Amino acid sequence: MTIYPVIMCGGAGSRLWPASRPGRPKQFLALTGEQSLFQSTVLRVAPLAADGRVIVVAGAGHADAVAAQLADIGTEAVVLLEPEARDSGPAMAAAAAFIEALDPAGVAAVVASDHHIPDAEAFRKAVRTAAAEAMNGRIVTLGVTPTSPSSAYGYICPAGPGLAPVSRFVEKPDAATAAGYVAEGYLWNSGNFIVAARTLMDELAVHAPAIGVHVRASLPAAGETGPVVRLGDAFRAAPKISIDYAVMEKSDRTSVLPVAFAWSDVGAWDSVMDTGQGQAGIHVGVDSADNLVRAPEGMVVATLGVSNLAVIVEPDAVLVCALDRAQEVKAVVDRVKVEAPGHADIPDRREPAPFARFGDWMRTAALPLWTTLGVHADGAFVEALTLEGRPRETRRRARVQSRQIFVLCRAGALGWRGPWREKAEAGLDRFLDGYVRSDGAIRNALSPDGAVLDDTAVLYEQAFALLALAAAHAAGVQTERCEARARVLLDRLAADRLPAGGWRETGDHPFQANANMHLFEAAQAWSARGVDRRWDAVADAIADLALTRLIDGEGGFLREFFDADWRPARGEDGRLVEPGHQFEWSWLLSRHALARDDERAMAAARRLYRHGLRGIDPRRGVAVDQLDDRLKVRSGDARLWPQTEWLRAALAMAALDEGGERGERLIEAGKAMRGLNRYLRPNGAWRDRLQVDGSFVDEPAPASSLYHIAGAFDQVCEAARSGLLADAPRDLA
User: Fold this and answer.
1) pTM as predicted
2) For residue 112, which of 44, 35, 52 has the smallest C-alpha distance?
3) 118, 371, 579, 710: least surrounded by Cβ within 10 Å?
4) Are 502 and 541 contacting, i.e. CB atoms less than 8 angstroms apart?
C-alpha cells in the first residue's frame, strides 16, 4: 500500500480578511506559529509518503507562493496547477487521475492545506488506518469528535461506532441544530478524505462522469511527473462542483473514521484566537484582555479598556471586530469590494510597465552609455564599466569586441537614432585589424595597449566573430569584407569538424555544449543571409548533435561537458546543468525547428524550456546559475545573463503556444522581465551577480552582458510587433 498525500491548496479564506485575500489566501499565512498553515500541512503529511512524494493541487496564480514556501522548509512536492478554479471536485479528481497513471494501486490521502492539527503523529496514525480501509474500495473521511456544538462546521452522521459507513452528510447547522447533532453522536466533517485513486475515478464515472473526462484530458503526456504539472485547458471545461456534491453525498462507498485529536479549520479570527498561537507583532494592552492582535513588523498596536476584540493590521487595511462575530467578517469583505475595491485583494506593487521601462532604458541609457564611455578612441570596446561609468580592464577579449558590434548592428536594425553605424564601422575595423591571425582564425585577446595577449583560436571566439560579421552584413556594414572573412572561418570549420560530430573547444573542457551553441547561433544567422548554403549544414549538424548527444535522452535536459564520444563527462563536470543554457538552447532549437519544420527539435525546445524553469528561485524571482543532473540547485547565485535567456525563451514559447499555455508563458515572461529589471541601473550599467541572500556583488558591469540584454530586447520587440505584448516597445526609434 502506497499512500500519496494530496494537499488541496485552494480557498480564499475571506473571513480572515485583511490578512487573507485572494492573492495571498490564509494557507500561506503564519496564523498558528512560525510556519504557514500550508507549510505545517506539508511537514505533517510528508512522512506518510513512502517515496517522499507529496502532491499539491493549487491555482496557477499561487504557483510562486507554493514554490517559495516549499523551498523555505526544504521540502519538495509535485505541484498540479489548475488553469482556473473549478472547486474541489475537479481538483481532487486531477490528483486522483495523476496518481492512478503513476500507480494504479495508489491511495490518495487528500487533506486541506489550511487546517491546524497540533498532534501530527495522531493525524498520521488515523490516515494509515483509513488507508487500509481505502484499499477495500471505501472512501474514508476523518470525522472529528466535537468538543462543543459549532455552527462553523459541517457534520457527519456515522452508521455505527468506530470506523463505520456514513449515514449522511449535513451542511453547517444553526446553533440549536448543532447542539442536537453533538448529542446524537455526529462528528465534525474535517474535509480530509482517504481513497484509492482508482476508486475515486470509478465513483466519478458513475456520479459525475464529465469531471473524469475533462480532468484526464487535462493531464500532460505520459512520463511528465513534475515537479510542476500544468493542467491543460480541458480542465476549464470540467463542471464546477465540490467533491461533496459530486460524489460524497451520492456514493454508497463512504465511511467515516472518528478521531479525537485537536483540529481546527482556522476559518475565522476566533478560531485563530482559540489556537493560542495567533498573536503577532507588538501589542501594548492597558486594561485589555482576551484580544487577538496582529500587526506587521515595525508597527505597534495599543489597546485601552477593551476585550474580546480582533485587531488585525495590514499595511493598507485594518480590521477591528468583536471575536464573537468573527464568522461575519465576510459581510465586511463584501462591503469593501463595493466601497474600497482596491483593498479587497493584496495591492499589486509590481512595476506596472516593465517592458516599457526596458525599452526606455535601452534607448536612453544603455546604448548611449556604451557608445560613449564604453568605447576607446581607437574604436575598441571597453571590457567593463564601473557603476559610475569608469572603464575597468586588464585585457580586451575578442568576444567583447564582436558582441558589441553585434549589439550596435541590431540597434540600428531596430531604428536606434544614435551613432550605431559609426561605432560599428570603427569597431569592426579595429576587430579585423587586431584580432585576425595570419591563418584567418580569431585570436582570443589583446592587451589594453593593443599587443597580442593570447593568440589562441578559441571556438567560442570564432562563433562570436561570425555572429558579429552576420549582423554587420545584415546591417550593410562592410558587407563584402564580412562575407569574405566569414568564408575563411567557414572553411576552417569544415576542416575541423569532429568525426563524432560537433567542434572541439580549447582548454580544460574540449567537448562542451556552450561553444557549439554559440556556433549554432552564428550558423543560423549566416544561413538567414543566404550567401552560402554550407551554413545550413553547419546548423543542421549542431542541431543533430544537441538532439542526439547533448540533451539527456531520458531526462530531456542539456548537460554542459562531455567526453570525446559526447557522453557525459566523468565526475561533477558531467552533472552540471545550467538553467540559462536550457533557455538559450530552447530558443535556438525552436528557431531551427521553425526553419526546418522539425517536430523533434520543437519538442526538445519545449522540454528544455520546462527544465529551465526548474532553476527559477521563487523567492527572488530569478533563474539561478547551476543545477545538477537531478535538477536540484547546485549554485544559488544568479547572474544577469540567465534572466535575459529566460525572457527570450518565454516569449518565443508564447509565440508558439495558444490559449491558456500562451497566457502562462506570457506570465513567465513578465516575471523574467521584472527579474531582469532588478539588475539594470538607471545610468545604463548593470549589476551582474545576485547572491543567495538577495544582495548584489559590488563589481563593474561586464560589457559582454549587453549581447544577452540586446537579444532579449530583440525578442520583446518581436513580441510587441506580433501583438503578443501590448505595453512593450516595438523598436528603438
Assistant:
1) 0.89
2) 44
3) 118
4) yes
